[in-house]
Amino acid sequence: MSSHLYFIDSGITRAPKTEEKLVELEKSIVELGIAGSIIRLSPLKTIQDTLSSRNFQNIQTIVGVGGDELFFDLLDCVCDKPLVLGMIAVMPSPILKCLGVPEGLDGTKIIAHRITKSIDCGRINQKYFFSSVIIPSAYEANLDGRFNLSIDASEAEANGMFMRVVNIDFNEPVPHQAERLKLEVVKKTKKMFRNDVSETQSSFIFSKLRISGSSEELVTADGQKTFKPPLEIMAAPKSLKMIVGKNRRPMFG
Q1: How many CB atoms sit inside 10 A of residue 198's CB?
Q2: Which of 49, 60, 67, 154 has the most CB atoms less than 10 A away?
Q3: What pTM does this model have?
Q4: What does the pLDDT profile of the chain (253 residues) look like in tens digits?
């Protein structure tokens, strides 16, 4: 059995001309010597169900065919495991672009060249995230057991305040300390006579963050994974083994 396993995003399988695109994909991976089983994801066929099957226990490389959302979903399946993740972006994908993954079937060449880097992620309970976690102001944060941080309810409502945990900040030329994450207290400010809204942050570096409190609001990781406290958030250094492109951002090695 091939060591490659391809997951096709469910959104692609519903798109027009899907069959033509998948035929092109299969032809390309065969020509490049990276052929493998192709799984079309759907509500009835999930990533977890597929990987739990005995038929795929010898897989070494998982390749997602989709965009950023599928990439975020696959993190839980590959981080801190003896698996390498590759992506073929078939839609505009800002995160994958930063990793040097081009849009279109040229991504198969990236998989074939197999430039692999170990990348830091974050962990929230037993799940993984890549970029950030949004924490509503209703919750309290404890940083490394040293002190608690909370936002006054009236101030939060007046200024649109919230907390944000950052693993990778694409606006920072120099990454923050390895094996640690950054907590930002964010305040939104509307510019006078304009509709523009700017953000100001107070930042704290931590190793372990505990989130507690009672609210119906959800904590959101990477814009899609949702959680209810109590939560423990920490760094997951070098947990993601990722196939990257030569045009990746310098922060990815």
Answers
A1: 10
A2: 67
A3: 0.91
A4: 568 999 999 888 776 777 788 889 999 999 999 999 999 999 889 999 898 886 777 899 999 999 999 999 999 999 999 999 999 998 889 999 999 999 999 999 999 999 999 999 999 999 999 999 999 999 999 999 999 999 999 989 888 899 999 998 887 755 556 678 999 999 877 665 566 767 788 999 999 999 999 999 999 999 999 999 999 999 999 999 999 999 999 889 8
Q: Give the N- to C-terminal CA distance of the chain in Å, as an integer.
A: 32
CATH number belonging to the domain at 127-236, selected among 2.60.200, 3.30.2010, 1.20.120, 2.60.40? 2.60.200
**CATH fold of 4-113, please?**
Rossmann fold (3.40.50)
Phi, psi of 204, deg, nearest 5: -135, 135
Rounded Cα–Cα distance for residues 129 and 96 (Å): 14
Chain centre distance of CA 146: 28
CA distance 139 to 215: 8
Q: How distant, in Å, are the alpha carbons of 36, 72, 141, 186, 208 from that of 77?
A: 18, 10, 28, 31, 22
Q: Quote the tokens at residue 46.
A: 């999930």
Residues 6+ apart with CB under 8 A from 116: 84, 241, 242, 243, 244
Look up residue 239 and give its two tokens: 């947990």
Give me the amino acid identity at 142. N
